[in-house]
Amino acid sequence: MKTPCPCCAGIQTVYAFSTPPMPVAAALLVYNAEESCNLPKKSLDLWHCATCGFLWNISFEAEHVRYDGDYEGTQIHSPHFARYLSELANRWAAKFPPETRRVLEVGCGQGEFLAALALKTDTELVGYDPAIRDENLYENVEMHAALLPGADTSSHCADVVINRMTLEHIENPAAFLELNLSWLTLHGLMAVQVPNAAHTIAQAALCELQYEHVNYFTPAALVALFERLELNSIAIKIDYGEQHLSVLAHRKTSNTEQPIDLQVFDIDALQREQQSFGSRWHSRLTTAIRADQKVWLWGAGSRATAFCANLPDPNLISGAIDLNPVRQGSFVPGVNIQTYLPNYLAGQSNLCIIIMNSVYRKEIAEKLASLGSNAVFYCL
Ligand SMILES: [Zn+2]
After folding, report:
1. CA distances for 110 relative to 81, 107, 130, 137, 179, angstroms
2. How many Å lie between the centroid of ligand 1 and the Cα of residue 324?
3. Which of 34, 247, 255, 320 could form a cystine bridge with 297, CB 3.0-4.6 A?
4. CA of 358 to the centre of ligand 1 (A)
């Protein structure tokens, strides 16, 4: 039986490969080593659409994943990321429809993007996310620690509905977008940002595959999904070192079909990477240790979880550094690797640091230099 693509509905879909079991909660805050090591793990069974490049975990089970106050996904403590988020807020605010009264963000995390928007616009800002820890964190942002309900009256409607880094977590993205659209005014703007799967596939970026991410959207896949929902994509942008994909869209006003820019994706490279990743990194880590280097991860978020799940022996790693103070003392989910603030490495030399995201390399090198530490770097 053919499994149709959830984005373009094409039937040229094939089983791609499966990952090793990895923690179902890649961004959970867990402060106990035993609890961390005993977290449930599941493999991803990835299918691929040859038409639009969409990749998805066909065996995903939503009941394994929870988004509550123990879910920590923010990168806002990085100055590099904070600058980027501010630029994104600028760019999107410039596209808001005239006389925008209300902006709704679905899956707003702890509200950092809405807070960035608050500096650019005086419109009403509303956010929903079950992971919100403090609904009153920002004076000028209305936050609800809940899933988005259906919009019951048109007076609730928003002129702009945003979901950033959310759609990849959703088992049925079409149904989720329809719920989002129930909140959108007739001529409103829909703004979606997801990790760019075209980059994941082209770079064979294995650690971008995480259980919490059900969906991996290429630009063509996201535009095809929008097309099925009668949305006209008006701006497609790839940024953040080609890692982020954002699409702005309006409801269609006519029946014209939007041409989709299809690209052929070599999914085999990602599969080959899956086979060689563990032994290559094991050899790199053991070589560093033989040279008396201490191996540290920089970044203790979901990529660190995926990295460790793909290693034969994660115990070779001394610890993880993260700028987020909430993570201090927590363990990388699935392993006995504790997280520290950068100051922990002050004055240390002979460090081998594995950077979870290359966009932070410059910032990390500067931070270490300011701490009087020396390191060799590897980037995922
Ligand atoms: Zn497709």
Report:
1. 15, 9, 10, 8, 21
2. 37
3. 320
4. 29
The tokens of 9 are what?
Answer: 């509905």
Backbone angles phi, psi at 78, to 5 degrees: -85, 125
Ligand 1 centroid – CA 227 distance (Å): 12
Residues by chain with Cβ below 5 Å of ion ligand 1: 5, 7-8, 10, 49, 51-52, 54
| Ligand 1 centroid from CA 224, angstroms | 7
pLDDT at 195 over 70: yes
- Residue 2 CA to ligand 1 center (angstroms) comes to 13
Interval between CA 158 and ligand 1 midpoint (Å) = 30
What percentage of the chain's residues is helix, strand, coil (to nearest 5)? 30, 25, 45
Distance 49 CA to ligand 1 centre (A): 5
Q: Are 305 and 314 in contact (CB under 8 A)?
A: no
Q: Domain extents for the chain?
A: 13-64, 79-251, 284-379
Q: What is the pLDDT of residues 278-325, one digit of tens each?
A: 999 999 999 999 999 999 999 999 999 999 999 999 999 999 999 999
Task: Please tell me the CATH code under which domain 284-379 is placed.
Answer: 3.40.50.720
Q: Which CATH superfamily is domain 79-251 in?
A: Vaccinia Virus protein VP39 (3.40.50.150)
Q: How far is the CA of 67 from the centre of ligand 1 (A)?
A: 28
Tokens found for residue 26: 């890649």
The model's pLDDT over 71-110, given as tens digits with 9 standing for 90+, comes to 777 788 889 999 999 999 999 999 999 999 999 999 999 9
| Model confidence pLDDT, tens digit, residues 208-245 | 999 999 999 999 999 999 999 999 999 999 999 999 99
C-alpha 237 – ligand 1 centre gap (Å): 19
CA of 52 to the centre of ligand 1 (A): 4
Q: Which of 349, 343, 340, 341 is nearest to 371 (CA)?
A: 343
Helix (H, G, I), strand (E, B) or coil at 309: helix
Is there a common fold for 79-251 and 284-379? yes
Work out the angle between the directed axes of helices 173-181 and 219-228 (0-180°, nearest 10).
60
Q: How far is the CA of 172 from the centre of ligand 1 (A)?
A: 14
